[in-house]
Specification:
Layout (H helix, E strand, L loop, with lengths): L3 E3 L2 E3 L21 E5 L7 E2 L3 E4 L2 E4 L4 E6 L3 E4 L12 E8 L6 E9 L4 E9 L2 E6 L9 E7 L5 E9 L2 E6 L2 E6 L11 E3 L11 E11 L19
Antiparallel strand pairs: 1-2, 3-4, 3-18, 5-8, 6-7, 7-18, 8-17, 9-14, 9-18, 10-11, 10-17, 11-12, 12-13, 14-15, 15-16
Length: 233
């Protein structure tokens, strides 16, 4: 009902909200976000600066997405905010690929050429995988996952650390886990669409709405995937 006040007398009807007092939705963990890219363009980034090599932008899951053709990448300036070695974290994005052959790195803190491997979300022969390394070398690394994703549709992927356990979620459903692995290498590099430093094994497809949250395991069980782009406040 709407309350109307006239000469000290109120009359009742339908109550309507005054937009002046309504507040925009907020992300309760936004203060822990160390990277957020909606991928409207290469400058659409919260948390750090970027260097774009060849990535173009076109309609994606939400507004624009980065279009990766296998020869391009977005390199993020190294930051302590990307050192996820000893804390809970959530690394997530939307992606779309129809490529069923080869190695293609999506979100990578996996500088293998200088033995600074930390974590990696990638597609191998059309199947989704996560790699982890405890000391930067290949000898201590593990890989898990393996579900086919090369169907040309958008998928949401999230790598979540909670305590010493790591979970891979695909489209809101727990896909695979590695329990008890513990700390990973203290990498500070991050590249979208390729491994840092050498920039090969490039992604082929689209990547949208990339977010890194340090110190927070956002998802610990199956969840409803976002229906809008990630909040930026």
């Amino acid at each position: 009902m709407t309350l109307r006040f006239t000469g000290g007398i109120s009359t009742s009807g339908e109550i309507t909200a005054n937009p002046q007092f309504s507040s925009a939705p907020t992300d309760e963990f936004f203060s822990s976000v160390t990277l957020l890219m909606h991928m409207e363009d290469a400058t659409d980034v919260i948390g750090n600066s970027t260097s774009n090599t060849g990535v173009t932008f076109a309609a994606g899951q939400f507004n624009n997405a980065g279009v990766f053709d296998g020869n391009d990448w977005i390199d993020i300036t190294p930051s302590s905010g990307f050192d996820l070695s000893a804390s809970d974290f959530t690394a997530e994005c939307w992606f779309n690929t129809s490529t069923g052959t080869g190695f293609h790195e999506m979100l990578s803190s996996w500088a293998y050429s200088i033995n600074e491997r930390s974590w990696l979300i990638w597609v191998n022969a059309g199947n989704l995988f996560v790699n982890l390394s405890s000391d930067g070398t290949l000898g201590t690394s593990i890989s898990f996952g393996g579900t086919s994703v090369s169907d040309g549709n958008y998928h949401h992927v999230a790598l979540v650390r909670s305590g010493s356990d790591y979970d891979l979620f695909l489209d809101g459903t727990l896909n695979d886990s590695e329990n008890g692995y513990g700390n990973i290498f203290a990498g500070t590099s991050l590249t979208i669409g390729a491994p840092p430093v050498v920039f090969d094994e490039n992604f082929i497809g689209d990547i949208d709405d990339v977010r890194i949250t340090k110190g927070v395991a956002r998802y610990t069980s199956n969840f409803a995937v976002p229906t809008e782009e990630f909040l930026d406040q």
